[in-house]
Amino acid sequence: MLSPKFKEAVKSRNVLRTRIMIKDAFVTDPSCALVDEMLQYAKDNGLKLMEPYDGGAMKRFSSEWNRAALNDELAKLMNNFSENRIRNLRSMTKTVLGAQGNKNGKTIIKWKASDDSIGEALATMRTEGDNIKEVLEHTEAAGRKWTKKDVDDMEKAANRILNAVRQYKDNLPTKR
Prior knowledge:
Layout: H1 4-11, H2 15-28, H3 33-44, H4 67-79, H5 83-96, E1 100-103, E2 106-109, H6 117-124, H7 132-141, H8 148-170
Antiparallel strand pairs: 1-2
C-alpha cells in the first residue's frame, strides 16, 4: 500500500524525494513488492526516475553481500538511479535482509543471521506460540550467553519492526 506522502511526492514531481522513499522501501520491505508498486505508480503518473547505468562498480555476487555492502549499494543508487542498480538491489536485499513470507495468514520475516548478532538472535526466536522464556533458556543452554547489549540490540530491532508495522497499518485504506 502506497503512503499518501509517496503519492504526493510523485504528484508534485519531486524526483529526489520519490527516489529516497523508494530507496528506503528496500529496507522496510525486503520482499521488494513495495518497491515494485512504487516504481509502477511513478511510471503510471509520468514521473521519470530512471537514468542510464553509469557503469560504476556494483557488488554483484552474493559472496560479497552483507549489511555494509547493502548500505553502500543503496547510497550508490541515489547517485545513479538505474534499472541495473535496482535489479541488483532486489536480489541483494532479499538475500541480506530476508524476504517476507506468509504462514497461516501471519506475516513472517526471515532474517539472514550470518552478518550480525541481532539477526542471529531474531532468527533464533520464534514467537508464534513459543514462550519467550523457554526460547531464552534453550539458547542459553546451547551455549549462548545474552549480554545487555544483545538485549538492547534486539529491543531496537523489535522497535524498528513495530514502527514499520504501524507505518504499514497507517497507510491501509479505511473500510467504509
